[in-house]
Amino acid sequence: xxxxxxxxxxxxxxxxxxxxxxxxxxxxxxxxxxxxxxxxxxxxxxxxxxxxxxxxxxxxxxxxxxxxxxxxxxxxxxxxxxxxxxxxxxxxxxxxxxxxxxxxxxxxxxxxxxxxxxxxxxxxxxxxxxxxxxxxxxxxxxxxxxxxxxxxxxxxxxxxxxxxxxx
Length: 167
Hints:
0% strand; 167 residues; mainly alpha
């Protein structure tokens, strides 16, 4: 016989399997970034899980859709507020995936200049988050910092990179 905990787990599992693709599509459409879309999609379900006692989940699609939309808009607003631009993300990503030896040398020089005045842990944070694809929470746990501390370091790197691009 299933206990109430097992029943809840089955219900949440079914909810996730049924609606995760819809939520992920919504997040991808709004954010246009796969990593951010996956993070927000998971956050949607964590929030629903945290509030499950207060919710009637008979027809959850509109709740999930609205929650995904709200969280995506929050991410977009935060990016604008913190000055995060997609061009700096694209540049860092392209540097991480280089094959040509001359480009590698040129970009190594750029990275060396970028990290020259940053704390040593900023390089590790950048690699974990931007290259290895860890979430902010995973990166923070790995380096022993708060999520806001990791976010500030990444913002500082992006600001420095943007300033270097302008030169």
